[in-house]
Amino acid sequence: QVQLVESGGGLVQPGGSLRLPCAAPGIIFRAYAMGWYRQAPGKQRELVATITSSGFTIYADSVKGRFTISRDNAKNTVYLQMNSLKPEDTAVYYCHVQTVAGVWGQGTLVTVSS
After folding, report:
1. CB atoms within 10 A of CB 87
2. What are phi and psi of 88, to 5 degrees?
3. Of 113, 42, 97, nearest to 105 (Cα)?
């Protein structure tokens, strides 16, 4: 069983920052690409950012320049650093690992509001 554990969500004011960590088993973490997705109220789940095992990254246009995805191989953890947050970023954020079957975390809620 592969279990992803993401956290770090919460309430933040517009313009603020949050960092979301996602931990995975080391053998899985080092072998596969990982990413973050989000699902806002009334919308479909969408890609936020991905990072390969070699460190190549892809970002959604809506978060470029504000969000950064990174991976710490020593800690078997992927991070999503979110800066300059907007109310439109409010969503449940899900960690994902790109195995053959695909594995999702349980999700963590980020609410951006004054």
Report:
1. 11
2. -70, -15
3. 97
pLDDT per position as a tens digit, 47-60: 999 999 899 999 99
Count of CB atoms situated within 10 Å of the CB of 22: 27
Q: Are 75 and 10 in contact (CB under 8 A)?
A: no
Residue 101, pLDDT > 80, answer yes
Q: Please report the pLDDT score of residue 46 as a whole number.
A: 97
The answer to whether the CB of 18 falls within 8 A of the CB of 70 is no
* Mean pLDDT score of the chain: 94
DSSP codes, 40-95:
-TTS--EEEEEE-TT--EEE-TTTTTTEEEEEETTTTEEEEEE-S--GGG-EEEEE
Rounded to whole angstroms, the maximal C-alpha distance in the chain is 41
Helix (H, G, I), strand (E, B) or coil at 103: strand
